[in-house]
Amino acid sequence: MTIKSCNDFSMVDMHQRLTEYLNRPIRIGNRRIDKRLIMAPMTFLGHVALRRVIGEFGGFGLLWTEMCNAKRVPTENRTVSPYFCWQDTELPYLVCQIFGADPEHMAAAAQRIEAEGFFGVDVNFGCSVKTICSQNCGAALLRDPNLAETIVAAIRKAVSIPVWVKFRTGWQDDPSYAVDLARRFEAAGADALIFHPRVSPDRRSRPPTWAYIGMVKESVSIPVFGNGNVFDERDCLHMLDSTGCDGVALGRLAVARPWVFAAWTTGLPVTPDLYLTTIRRVAGFLREHFGEDRALSRFRKLSLYYSANFRYGHTLYSSIMGAGHMAAAEDALQRFFESPPELNRRPNMNFFN
C-alpha cells in the first residue's frame, strides 16, 4: 500500500500533540536540548555517514556515535578509526557512546571525549551481542550492579559534560531490578537514562515491555528516554502517554527513514522521492568516510532496515547483498526504482526482527 497523507482530524490532532511535546526543551545535566526526539545508540548503523544525512534533515535533539572501546579512545586517531570519528559540526549535538568494564579506562575515555568538545558521553550497558558481553562489557555489566554503578561514578567524577546511561531490564524479566539500576545510576551521577525494556538475552524475540519504562521514570528524578518498537507517530505518542517518559530514542526507524526526526518535529513533508535521494546520499557519504570495502559492509547492514520501507523490499535487499562492490549496490538501487516501488506506511517488521 502506498503512503498517503492523513487528513482526518484524529491523525492531524495526534501529529500536533506529538510535535508540540517533542519540541519542548529539556535540560540534560548542565546543558539543554531543544527537542525530545533523539537517536538511539547503535553500532555499525549510527555511523558518521548516516548522521550526516540525518543532520541535513534536522529535527532531532541529539545524535550518537557508534560504540567505541574505552581502552582505545584516549589515544584513538579519529582520522583512522571507523568508530571514533565525527564531523566537527556535529559536536554540539553529538554524544559519544563507550563500552568497557574498567572504571579507570572509562573515565579516561570520557575525559578525551570532553576535551574533543562532544555534547556528552554515553555508557553502554545495553549491548547484548556475545562478543561484547564475553568481555564483561555492555549488558553483561547489569549482572554486577555495583561495578556498573562504580563505572558511572568514575565517569561523573572525571568530566563535567552530561553523562548518559543506556541500559536494559537486566538478565531476568524483573522490573524491580531495572528500577534499582536506574536509582543506582542516578545516585552515581548520571544526568539522563535511555531505557530499553527488554531482558538482555532477548534480542527481539518478544516485544519490549513499555510499562517498565513508566516504573523506571517514576523511580528517578533525571530524564528518562524510552526506547524500543517505536515505528510511527502513533507508537511514539503512545509510549509518551502510557509511560510518562521525558522523550523517545529512535534506533532502527532512524536507519530506515533518516528524515523521521524532521517529519515528526518540524512537519517535513515525506514525498516518495525522498526514499531514493536519501539512500543515495548515505551511499555517497559512506564512500567518502570509509572507502569502498568498509562502505559496502556498512551499506549492506543499513540496507536491511531501509528495505523494510517497501512492499517488495526483499528484492532490493537481496540485490544489494549480492553486490560485490558499492557501484553494483548503487546500480541495484537504481534498477529497483526504475518503476516507483510501493511504500509501506509502517516498516515491514520481518526486516526489523
Explain what this protein looks like in three dimensions.
The protein is α/β, with parallel strands linked by helices and 353 residues long. The chain has two domains: 9-265, TIM Barrel, CATH 3.20.20; 273-352, no CATH class. It has 14 helices and ten strands. The protein has helices at residues 9-22, 48-57, 103-116, 130-133, 145-158, 175-188, 210-219, 233-243, 252-256, 260-265, 273-306, 313-321, 326-336, 349-352; strands at 26-28, 31-33, 37-39, 63-69, 94-99, 120-125, 163-170, 192-199, 224-227, 247-250. The strands form two sheets. The chain has an eight-stranded parallel sheet. Helix 5 packs parallel to helix 6 and helix 6 (175-188) packs parallel to helix 7 (210-219). It starts with 8 loop residues before the first helix and ends with a helix. The relative contact order is 0.13. The model is unreliable at 1-9 (pLDDT under 50).
Chart the SSEs and their pairings.
Layout: H1 9-22, E1 26-28, E2 31-33, E3 37-39, H2 48-57, E4 63-69, E5 94-99, H3 103-116, E6 120-125, H4 130-133, H5 145-158, E7 163-170, H6 175-188, E8 192-199, H7 210-219, E9 224-227, H8 233-243, E10 247-250, H9 252-256, H10 260-265, H11 273-306, H12 313-321, H13 326-336, H14 349-352
Parallel strand pairs: 3-10, 4-5, 5-6, 6-7, 7-8, 8-9, 9-10
Antiparallel strand pairs: 1-2
